[in-house]
Design brief:
It is a single chain. Strand 2 and strand 3 form a beta hairpin. The radius of gyration is 20 Å and the shape is globular. It is an all-alpha fold.
């Protein structure tokens, strides 16, 4: 491997154009999609350039190509699509060099304006006493994702402060009900259905309340605090504690619950689903570990780590993995375990499982697309991290709220 001190410096300028929506033959709608598009794939090239196994010319060419497309800054933009996605990747490329300053200033203005609009809409919804939607607050498309970018970019800024304050308000019970404030009015697919007559409570890291928990925890550890911060974290943790299911193979949590399950206290999911980043025990364990670190709660930290160790020692759960991707596949499992191990006193116990988890990843059919969340870029990033044995050079996994 080329020594990191010998690597070339990243480019210092990438143009950005502006528009509300993408379109046209030279502007593929997915170009600014972090999950599947060119911006997400560029994260792999940035990591390789930082490690000296790739080159900055490739990164510059990719960023320049993406930035030629009209900037998506409409209200449906979020961390995984549009201006925030491009800003996240450009900031990752720049690191602490000060490069891309002008373009990032333009993108930051777009992200701030978007976040302010989204916050106004969310607070108006809360004032009316209406139930929320996952896309209002979640990591991929909502305010938690915007907060994840702001925490990385401007951890002590006013806009992040206001996002965190909104998340504190989100954890307050809905007036006239004992439903939590993050209760979603629709079913998990975003539709009205007879199976979810009163909506649902989403538990996952990608689309549920575990995402806000992870963001609040990371922000607290970074010294970005708002009024009610700790209380909000404890309310989420108490809800997750109430949903925890104890089995012979270890604890697990459901993906979501109905109104009936919420009021009865009984969970109807038969057992743990696949051990994934997005909804499974790995993502939930990492978020609870981060919360425990932020709160100085050693007992909870040990419990979260033990839950993950029990999960990855269970062949039946590992057999549920059926793809290679970061989101719900073997790469996400591998990388989440790697991150948990880095913050655990039981790092050796986790390390003993890593060869089998890498083998599980290699046993999966190769991804059929090149993207970040479900494709080749994400699997290669996860493998790079465990092969290097430390934290990713660029901290690319901040968009997954793993760091």
């Amino acid at each position: 491997m080329t020594p990191r001190t010998a690597r070339p410096q990243p480019p210092n300028s990438v143009p950005a154009t502006s528009s509300s929506v993408p379109g046209g033959p030279d502007n593929p709608p997915h170009a600014q999609a972090l999950a599947t598009g060119a911006v997400g794939i560029t994260l792999l090239h940035i990591e390789r350039a930082h490690l000296g196994t790739g080159d900055w010319a490739t990164v510059r060419n990719r960023l320049t190509s993406i930035a030629r497309t009209p900037l998506v800054g409409s209200d449906d933009a979020g961390l995984f699509v549009g201006a925030p996605a491009l800003a996240y990747v450009l900031h990752t490329a720049a690191g602490t060099t000060g490069h891309h300053r002008k373009t990032l200033h333009t993108l930051d203005a777009a992200v701030t304006a978007l976040t302010r609009r989204r916050l106004d809409t969310a607070h108006t919804r809360i004032d009316r006493g209406e139930l929320t939607t996952a896309s209002e607050y979640d990591l991929l498309y909502g305010l938690t994702g915007l907060g994840a970018y702001l925490l990385r970019r401007d951890p002590h800024g006013d806009t992040l402060h206001d996002v965190l304050s909104y998340l504190v308000r989100l954890t307050q019970p809905i007036p006239g009900s004992d439903l939590p404030g993050w209760w979603v009015r629709y079913d998990p697919s975003g539709r009205t259905s007879g199976a979810f007559p009163g909506g649902h409570g989403n538990v996952g890291l990608a689309h549920g309340i575990t995402g806000p928990l992870a963001l609040l925890a990371l922000a607290k550890s970074a010294g970005a605090l708002v009024d009610g911060h700790t209380g909000a974290m404890r309310r989420i943790l108490a809800w997750l504690d109430g949903l925890r299911q104890d089995a012979a193979t270890g604890p697990w949590w459901p993906q979501w619950v109905t109104v009936g399950e919420h009021y009865s206290g009984a969970v109807f999911q038969d057992g743990p689903m696949r051990p994934s980043w997005c909804y499974g025990t790995p993502g939930l364990a990492r978020a609870q570990q981060l919360a425990a670190i932020a709160l100085g709660d050693d007992h909870r930290k040990r419990a979260a780590e033990q839950a993950l160790l029990r999960c990855i020692a269970d062949p039946a759960q590992l057999a549920l993995i059926c793809d290679a991707g970061l989101c719900h596949g073997a790469a996400g499992l591998l990388h989440t375990v790697h991150r948990v191990a880095q913050d655990s006193a039981r790092a050796r116990d986790f390390a003993a499982h890593l060869p089998a988890l890498r083998a599980l990843l290699h046993d999966q059919a190769p991804a059929r697309e090149p993207g970040f969340l479900d494709g080749l870029a994400g699997t290669r990033l996860a493998l790079h991290a465990t092969e290097q044995g430390g934290s990713p050079a660029t901290g690319w996994d901040a968009c997954l709220l793993l760091s």
